[in-house]
TrEMBL record:
The keyword Transmembrane helix does not apply. InterPro entries: 3-OHacyl-CoA_DH (IPR022694), 3-OHacyl-CoA_DH_NAD-bd (IPR006176), 3HC_DH_C (IPR006108), 6-PGluconate_DH-like_C_sf (IPR008927), 6PGD_dom2 (IPR013328), NAD(P)-bd_dom_sf (IPR036291). Pathway: Lipid metabolism; butanoate metabolism. It comes from Metabacillus rhizolycopersici. Belongs to the 3-hydroxyacyl-CoA dehydrogenase family. Residues 4-183 form the 3-hydroxyacyl-CoA dehydrogenase NAD binding domain. This is 3-hydroxyacyl-CoA dehydrogenase. The keyword Oxidoreductase applies. Keywords: Oxidoreductase. It comes from the Bacteria.
Length: 288
């Protein structure tokens, strides 16, 4: 049974997972090596709880319960030494994830399940760096975590049925739907999302239409809730570029990153978090 969840990484995804898990009744420790990042995440979650109560999305007592369920730390050992489930939400860099999980594997209780929130990378490869590949899985959340209904559960080659069933139960308690995916680069959603977004960037580069009209066409013509360029700005263009590079090296030419994406990242136009990507954003829209 999972009672305590350790979330590693307090960026957009980590703090969203922490809020959702705490609101769902789990005891949660959110960890980041950066004290300013942890302070920022704490302020963000407190503000989100307040706004959610004010707008009637949750009751006041639910907000207070979520606050009581949350603790924050900069120390990895404090976060994972007594946990039942670790969910990692750090940058999409394989070496970083492997090194982090080697540390977690040494500290976490033997029965604890280890999960990566990666959107593209191999849980088999990451799990093989631990002593518990049967208890390793990818648990791919979507941004913004509190509102998005899906979690992709991706099996590594050694992931046990028991591990998958426990993760399904945790996901259901968070009021999420799940799909089970056999590991392949990019899984289901990231392969589709990246290739649609990349083609939109190429069309913008070629002058086919403006960013606004490309997004409008996809939303109204194909019934997507958000246009592909808006989505890329939300995800972060640096994150999207890392995902595209991984898919390009894994799956070949059709995933070659758009030259426009590469140019924007070099220019520091990273989307919402930098204030400019394919669109311009006001200060209050900047989330990181």
């Amino acid at each position: 049974m999972v009672n305590h969840i350790a979330i590693i990484g307090s960026g957009t995804m980590g703090r969203g997972i922490a809020y959702t898990a705490a609101l769902s009744g789990f005891h949660v420790t959110l960890q980041d090596i950066s004290a300013p990042a942890i302070a920022k995440a704490m302020d963000y979650i407190d503000s989100l709880i307040t706004k959610s109560v004010e707008k009637g999305y949750i009751q006041g007592e639910q907000g207070e319960l979520a606050k009581r369920n949350l603790t924050y730390t900069t120390h990895l050992e404090d976060a994972v030494r007594h946990t039942d489930l670790v969910i990692e939400a750090v940058l999409e860099v394989m070496e970083l994830k492997i090194n982090l999980f080697k540390q977690i594997d040494e500290i976490a209780p033997p029965n604890a399940i280890l999960a990566t929130n990666t959107s593209t990378m191999s849980p088999t490869e990451i799990g093989a760096a631990t002593t518990r590949p049967k208890q390793f899985v990818a648990m791919h959340f979507f941004n913004p975590v509190p509102r998005m209904k899906l979690i992709e559960i991706i099996r590594g080659i050694d992931t046990s049925d028991e591990t998958v069933e426990i993760i399904k139960t945790v996901s259901e308690k968070m009021r999420k739907e799940t799909v089970e995916v056999n590991e392949f680069p990019g899984f289901v959603t990231s392969r589709m999302n990246c290739i649609i977004g990349n083609e939109a960037m190429n069309m913008l580069m070629e002058g086919v239409a403006s960013a606004e009209d490309i997004d409008k066409a996809i939303k109204l013509g194909l019934n997507h809730p958000m246009g592909p360029l808006e989505m890329a700005d939300l995800v972060g263009l640096d994150s999207r570029l890392r995902n595209m590079e991984y898919l390009y090296h894994s799956l070949g030419e059709k995933y070659r990153p758009s030259p426009l994406l590469v140019k924007y990242v070099k220019a520091g136009r990273l989307g919402r978090k930098s204030g400019q990507g394919f669109y311009h954003y006001n200060r209050e829209d900047v989330t990181i």
